[in-house]
Amino acid sequence: MSLQRIVxxxxxxxxxxxxxxxxxxxxxxxxxxxxxxxxxxxGEGECGACSVLMDGSLVNSCLIPVAQAAHAQIVTIxxxxxxxKLDPVQEAFLHCGGSQCGMCTPGMIMAAKCLLMHNVxxxxxxxxxxxxxxxxxxxxxxxIFEAVEAAARKQESEAAR
Length: 161
What we know:
Elements: E1 4-10, E2 13-19, H1 25-32, E3 51-54, E4 57-60, E5 73-75, H2 88-96, H3 105-118, H4 124-130, H5 142-160
Parallel strand pairs: 1-5
Antiparallel strand pairs: 1-2, 3-4, 3-5
């Protein structure tokens, strides 16, 4: 199979890559675009470590052929905030201890961001459901849930200003 030119917007910047159409979006992001924040856990769409936003929806980038991402808006963990100004979700994970080893953290943060984009005041059960496709083997989830609740409160207070 020959290479195909794929154009997509990644973290607000139009990017063009030459890739095999069935190459995984995860590999293109990490290897061709140098965005290594997105992690590979299982490679089967079961753990959520590779979660990114594609056109506003949470997807497992290990399951997306890059051809499917042509002309899409992709947001990775690198696109959420900066070291100078963290996204509220990133800040909440930091302050609440929502990560330990860090393997699941980018996917968890992306899932939380997606949840809060669609539900600004989620209940604990809605948070549990919103993060349901993401596995963590270190934290026991309570600090992660607390981080999402803290991020929701911060976003709500910022919106009220």
